[in-house]
Design goal:
This protein is an alpha+beta fold. The chain is built from two helices and nine strands. The longest helix is centred in the first third of the chain and has 29 residues, at 3-31. The model is unreliable at 24-36 (pLDDT under 50).
């Protein structure tokens, strides 16, 4: 084998390993924090079921309390105008709005589309989800049918589940 070819191959290998090592070191710094955005899992909840008959009354309605976070929705004319999450110490937490055509939360238990039969999938219905990250990095997502949302998918980003 040509010495120049060996030198080139060795240089490419060293360059590749140094790039990988730099990426691994950067990931290690994030792991040291313990808590943070995106470190946990996504918990899908049926917002329609949690809201129930409160949808008929205008105003702010508390859905549930998760530790120091209080989750509430704002209802306007029988539709959800927004979701707010208030932390007892940090104040208002940022909320992300998602949209998908896959039913992510059911009334009883979560079933991913990949685990359902094709006939059971809701392909024609759009779901809107409001999400926030709790203190442990878990993403809490509350899903509603599109028809329940006041401003539809305005500002919503496509939800891509990470299994």
């Amino acid at each position: 084998m040509n010495p120049n070819r060996r030198l080139f191959t060795a240089g490419v290998a060293v360059l590749g390993m140094s790039a990988f090592a730099g990426h691994a070191a950067a990931a290690g710094k994030d792991d040291e924090k313990g808590k943070g955005k995106g470190k946990g899992k996504a918990n899908h909840k049926n917002g329609k079921q949690l809201l129930g008959d409160k949808i008929k009354a205008n105003g702010k309605h508390v859905l549930e309390t998760n530790g120091p976070q209080t989750v509430s929705v704002e209802v306007k004319d029988g539709k959800i105008a927004g979701m707010h999450v208030k932390h007892s110490k940090k104040g208002e937490l940022p909320v992300t709005k998602y949209k998908t055509k896959t039913k992510m939360a059911s009334a009883d238990v979560l079933q991913y589309a990949s685990m359902q039969h094709v006939q059971l999938q809701d392909m024609g219905i759009v779901y809107i989800g409001y999400a926030y990250y709790d203190d442990y990095g878990n993403e809490e997502i509350y899903w509603y049918p599109y028809e329940m949302i006041y401003d539809g998918d305005t500002g919503a980003v496509e939800y891509i589940p990470v299994y």
